[in-house]
């Protein structure tokens, strides 16, 4: 069996969502795709038809990031601040969507684990309450994330050549 997707998702506590995804690429390359705006814009687009015209990622402690997705008249946007970044291993940040029904800010811990076959990305999202965690988990986030991760798989193959 080849190393790689699909996304694994669990709820290890009342306020957390844990996602894990394997990528058949070196950790430095996966980390670059998470932290360099020209690369982020190529894979973090979600379902077909969505684009990311705004992508900012300041890869430093205290740096900010902002993603805006568009599909016709629909808009979705997220912003965050990076508290800790250790290249190419770890990013700790606080983030939230502009849309009020997404419940405010959450904490994000992203670890990039190097393995002989590639890289495992582990993202621990922590919300203010169980109700909020359950609301976010029910949005279909796993499907949207996996669509983007398939884009990342293709980008990683292209960049490894």
Helix-residue proportion: 25-40%
Biggest sheet strand line-up: 1-2-8-7-6-5-4-3
Helix/strand-derived class?
alpha+beta
The unreliable regions are none
Shape: globular
Strand content: 35-45%
What is the total tally of β strands?
8
Please describe the biggest sheet, giving its number of strands, its sense, and whether it closes into a barrel: 8 strands, antiparallel
How many distinct helices?
4
Could you report the average pLDDT, rounded to the nearest whole number?
A: 93
Order of helices and strands: EEHHEEEEEEHH
Integer-rounded radius of gyration: 15 Å
* Termini separation: 22 Å
Pfam families: AHSA1 (PF08327)
Domain Activator of Hsp90 ATPase homologue 1/2-like C-terminal: 25-156
Protein name: ATPase
InterPro entries: ASHA1/2-like_C, START-like_dom_sf
Give an overview in words:
By secondary structure, the protein is of the alpha+beta class. The protein contains four helices and eight strands, in the order ββααββββββαα. An eight-stranded antiparallel sheet has the order 1-2-8-7-6-5-4-3, covered by helices on one side. The radius of gyration is 15 Å and the shape is globular.
